[in-house]
Amino acid sequence: MRHLDRQQLTELLAAPVFHLIGEVADEMHLEAYVVGGYVRDLFLERPSKDIDVVVVGSGIQVARQVAVRLGRHAHLSVFKNFGTAQVKDGALELEFVGARRESYSHDSRKPIVEDGTLEDDQQRRDFTINAMAVCLNRERFGELVDPFDGVWDLEDRLIATPLDPDVTFSDDPLRMMRCIRFATQLNFEIEPETFEALERNRERIRIISQERIIDEIQKFMASDAPARGWELLFQCGLLEIIFPELYALHGIETMNGRAHKDNFWHTLEVLTNVVRAGGDLWLRWAALLHDIGKPKTKRFDPAAGWTFHNHNFVGEKMVPQIFRRLKLPLDDRMKYVQKLVSLHMRPIVIADEEVTDSAVRRLLFEAGDDIDDLMLLCEADITSKNQQRKQRFLDNFQLVREKLVDLEERDRIRCFQPPVSGEEIMELFHLPPCREVGVLKSAVKDAILDGVIPNEHDAALEFVIQLHRKRRGN
Ligand code: CTP
To answer: 460 burial class (0-12, 13-18, 19+ CB within 10 angstroms)?
Structure first.
């Protein structure tokens, strides 16, 4: 964070639009301030595009006049019911609101709103770092108004509420998610009383729509250290409510003196590893969900110890249910996560045994273009504290990777297209569309993947002719 005095703030607000807003407000004998995230981000030197303006008086009136003065390209939208107005001019996006006081009833997010002072407006905001205002009127241009010491909290890297946190969170429970999102995104601590209020108010999250919750999650998932967001959700008790399947990964059970690892903390480690390796948002989701099937498949076998047989397939089936409930997209991005969850054991199994051409070719066939991400996930999944064991896996993965490159060059399996088509088979043997065509096609595929024949048309044709002859008994 940098320190900014009035002079520096004035320089940072040099864009003509800030002076224009001040002029319009002066003419109307009103006060206008830039407020909230935009001010916070000036101090944090983060780029910020939305500009929120609070007017002590009618924000809509000021917005109308600003839009007129900006000229014919500016576009004004008025939301009378909310007392807000938006002005868009090219890339510029301004939100105007009148300073207000809000009170909330217990079972709704809809507040009762009255006109208020600037300070009323600031104290109804979520966090001290989001409650700072800078005056735009000519006489006081660049003056910081910070009654809740947001600057100190920026300095101390703290998320704290301007009011009693129970009031702030109960008024608008989405702020609990915002609290965790900001702490994660900015790498700030949550002030202890604020954190305790998260614990006390967590049940209130149930009145918030899933769309808004996932928005906050996606913001911290895209940040530099998303595991921290999940850790905070876990610690304050929100995770259990909003994502019970992930919460269920938590815990260690011991039987006959044998314990399994805590799969929640393991999952967060894998997520962090994937982030370090440059994984994008959806690979991060795959990391988060890779072991999601474990609680359902956990068994204790006196001989083998703890097992999680087929947890990858159970997890694969859970992915669509989870995506639907969390309101994540149900398109190719979901399919990608499902595929990685389903295949995440394969390279480990291969690396644990002998790395054969056939096993690697089959893996390449199933993973297709996602093979590189899959390998990355699998390497991230090795969180063993036993360095020797870890190294053995990583060495074997290296072997799998080398084989992948080698086979790809030779066999082009990644975007596998059968070298003989169903139509060709039907024509060749005068067959109608029937089961036999499918059998022959899949035998060709297996022969290629097992390395019996090369991935080439002529070889495949020869193979299918021989096979058909054999199957007919001549
Ligand atoms: N705000 C609030 N409570 C909310 C949402 C927003 O008090 N539930 C206030 C905060 O003062 C915030 C401002 O409205 O700074 C603007 O909100 P928004 O644009 O959603 O967030 P930003 O703080 O600008 O942060 P970001 O752009 O990272 O979402």
So the answer is: buried
